[in-house]
Amino acid sequence: MRLEGSCHCGNVRFRCQAYAPVPFMHCYCSICRKTAGGSGSAVNLGARADTLEIEGREHLGVYQAKIREGDGGCRVSSARRHFCTGCGSALWLFDPEWPELVHPHASAIDTPLPEAPERVHMLLDSKANWVGVPQGVNEVHFAEFPEESLEAWHRRHGMLDET
C-alpha cells in the first residue's frame, strides 16, 4: 500500500510502500510516549526503506534515545526517530539494524489506513499512570513486548502486502 505522510506545518512530506499498513500496535514505552505525544502511545507501520521518498529533508531532525540499563548504565539506541524541526511532528523510525525497513508513525500518515481487527497494547509496564488503556475482546495487552512481530500479525490477519 502506498502511504503519503506529512508533518503538521507541511515542511516535510514523504511517501513509501507499506507491506504492513494496519495501525494496530500501540507502544506505551517512555520513548514513544514522550516523543510522539498524543494518548501516551505511538503506532508504527511497516514499510520498505528503499521506497521512502522525502520532500523537505532540510527540515528533518533525528533523535536517538538514551536507554537506561538495569545496571544503572545507559546506551544510545540504534533507532533513529525522524521528526520535523519546525513543528516537532514525529514522522518515522529507521533502525540500521534492519536497513530494509522504515516505520512511519500512523499519526503522520495522510492516506486513509485500514482498520485493525484487533489492537495490541505493548510495554504497558512503562505507561504513564494517567493513560487509560482500552479493554475488550479485541484489545490485547502485554506488559513487555509481544512475541508476534509486526509482519506476523499482518500475515495472521490476512493484511500483509507481499507484492
TrEMBL record:
Domain CENP-V/GFA residue range list: 3-154
Protein name: GFA family protein
Keyword terms of this UniProt record: Lyase, Metal-binding, Zinc
SUPFAM superfamilies for the chain: Mss4-like
PANTHER family: DUF636 DOMAIN PROTEIN (AFU_ORTHOLOGUE AFUA_1G09754), GFA DOMAIN-CONTAINING PROTEIN
Stated family: Belongs to the Gfa family.
